[in-house]
Design brief:
Belongs to the REXO1/REXO3 family. By secondary structure, the chain is α/β, with parallel strands linked by helices. Helices cover about 35% and strands about 15% of the residues.
């Protein structure tokens, strides 16, 4: 018990601005007045003097010979906002340190059609924006050229343009430093808890005490039982593992094991399913017909036993624990999943097996018995992996190939002092997704484009890199589907959708700080056909892998492969617009000696 507390549960459009000779003389000011107006006393944010008269300039190079990618856009952001030393070859940014902030606006649904073309697929060089439809006049007024982009993907799939933009490949030296820094940062159990997004994306039942949970989410598992809060002696950190067989109704519970932080066995019970078992899958479950002879313990009995043993304040640890909790029909708020704490050697979204993690990180062979898995052994293995994580830092066991662009930017200080103090640059994401922010960026979830614009106006002055996503046009065109929580109005026509987008883009531009670099990226295109064909392929593979019998499923032919390639290429066809909001005025006080 002492070691448990010690290791895991400690608390815890214009011309560029310049000073012209025709400008009126700057009034002289006494030293006393200057001190009174100092940035330290008034909290004024002042740019460093040596950059005050250096207005930034952005231009595209005329010799672009290949289609740009989302990584080229990322390089521009890093060149502008960080100490990145690789200057983009496709554009020029003069006086980059005078750029006040970078604003990236994702507008899925914005395609070549809005510029009078059926596709950008064969176009490499930028085109004039004058061909844009009349309802999107803001674009032709503020942006000179539209840049064709090729989004990340393969011949079979389209990858997320948002993730591609926000992830930076690490060098070996950077990886080593990250691991060293991570190990020096103390980790406690709450650092490993699943977030609401983790619960949802990994098909976990969600407990009512999980922060941010909605009634709609809870209703999906309304027949499940919740752990409740109560005081009890002993450990407050448990590892759980269940063994399952195949019954006439699907997967059924046949054994439950629970161990504590010190690997003592608390519960180990066989369970009699309420339906006939058709496959004991002994090779994996370790369950045989003989082991269940005479067993009368039911699922309800096990639920009651666990609810009397584990408080909602306690921690449950397991490997892909969603399977166990779903078969138990239990919901718990504080969950640590070793399949998420540790990465597969090839990185996400692949998940490593418990057996491979134990062999790789603890040099221990498990699950090697001919009689099948041993649930107590699996419990202890999960607990030991969590202890190892606590000792070695959050990044231990993670595939460090990339880091977020937000992290990279936060390593650089702002060009302005805040209350006379240097502060690191900060990032803001305003989106529909319920994604937890890190120490490097702030995330705001919204449910309409208008709300995104309003939140931008409210928070933009505080941040250096801002990412937004406007989705009304995408939804109107049928490219994407939103959650029931969204409050996007239903435009009566495409012309109304264009007008709404035009107004919002104009509002963002007018609210942006002077000398802001503004980037509009259409992001992923229409992926509906891609999804349909991938579904056909997956079903075909699934049936073929079972017994080679393909009857009853649609054939996966060479024509289908070619159709998928065409659909992927169309969805990867994207565009980008870049402009610099110029500073037309000079703050007289900001340039005083």
């Amino acid at each position: 018990m002492k070691s448990e507390k010690k290791i895991g549960e400690s608390s815890s459009s214009s011309s560029s601005s310049s000073i012209r000779q025709t400008s009126p003389p700057i009034p002289t000011t006494s030293k006393k007045q200057k001190r009174r107006r100092s940035s330290v006393q008034q909290g004024t944010q002042l740019r460093k003097k040596k950059f005050l008269s250096d207005s930034p300039e952005f231009s595209l190079n005329q010799d672009i010979s290949s289609k740009l990618s989302i990584s080229d856009v990322r390089s521009l952001i890093l060149w502008t906002m960080s100490d990145f030393t690789d200057q983009p070859k496709w554009c020029t940014v003069e006086n980059r340190k005078s750029v006040s902030q970078v604003i990236v606006i994702f507008v899925p649904g914005l395609t070549s059609e809005e510029f009078g073309l059926s596709t950008f697929s064969d176009i490499k060089k930028p085109l004039p924006t004058s061909s844009v439809c009349n309802e999107l006049s803001f674009i032709s007024q503020r942006f000179q050229q539209v840049i064709p982009l090729l989004l990340p993907g393969s011949n079979k799939a389209v990858y997320s343009s948002f993730l591609a933009l926000t992830q930076v490949t690490l060098s070996k030296k950077e990886k080593k430093k990250l691991l060293k820094d991570s190990k020096q940062h103390k980790v406690i159990l709450p650092d490993l808890y699943l977030t609401l997004d983790d619960f949802i994306s990994n098909n976990y039942p969600v407990h009512s005490e999980v922060p941010g949970v909605t009634e709609e989410i809870l209703a999906k598992t309304a027949d499940y039982k919740d752990t409740i809060k109560f005081d009890h002696e002993g450990s407050h950190t448990f590892a759980l593992d269940c063994e399952m067989c195949i019954g006439t109704t699907g997967k059924v519970l046949t054994r439950v094991s629970l161990t504590d932080f010190n690997n003592n066995v608390i519960i180990d019970e066989f369970v009699k399913p309420d339906c006939e078992i058709v496959d004991y899958v002994t090779r994996y479950s370790g369950i045989t017909e003989e082991k269940l002879n005479g067993i009368t313990t039911t699922l309800s009995d096990i639920q009651d036993l666990l609810l009397k043993t584990v408080s909602s304040d306690d921690v449950l640890i397991g490997h892909s624990l969603e399977s166990d909790l779903n078969v138990l029909k239990l919901r718990h708020p504080k969950v640590i999943d070793t399949a998420l704490c540790y990465d597969h050697v090839r990185g996400p979204p692949l998940k490593a097996s418990l057996k491979s993690l134990m062999e790789l990180h603890l040099k221990t062979i498990i699950q090697n018995k001919e009689t099948g898995h041993e649930s107590i052994e699996d419990c202890i293995s999960c607990m030991e992996l969590v202890k190892l994580k606590l000792q070695n830092g959050l990044l231990f066991g993670k595939v460090l190939e990339q880091e977020s662009i937000f992290k990279r930017i936060s390593n650089v200080n702002k060009m302005r002092l805040i209350d006379g103090v240097k502060k690191p640059k900060s990032s803001l994401c305003i989106d529909y997704a319920a994604v937890k922010g890190s120490r490097d960026e702030v995330r705001v979830q919204c449910f309409s484009d208008d709300s995104i614009v309003e939140n931008f106006k409210l928070h933009q002055k505080e941040h250096d890199l801002i990412l937004l996503r406007l989705r009304e046009l995408e939804v109107y065109k049928g490219f994407g589907i939103l959650s029931k929580q969204s409050t996007i109005p239903d435009p009566q026509s495409i012309h109304e959708a264009y007008s709404n987008l035009n107004r919002r883009l104009s509002d963002i531009y007018e609210s942006a700080s002077n000398n802001s670099l503004i980037i509009i990226c259409s992001g992923n295109g229409d992926c509906r056909k891609v999804g349909e064909l991938q579904k056909i392929h997956k079903l075909y593979q699934s049936e073929f892998n079972k017994d080679g019998n393909k009857s009853g499923v649609e054939e996966w032919t060479l024509d289908k492969i070619e159709e998928l390639n065409k659909a992927v290429n169309a969805a990867r066809d994207s565009l980008c617009l870049i402009t610099l909001k110029k500073d037309d005025s000079i703050d007289e006080e900001a340039i005083e000696e």
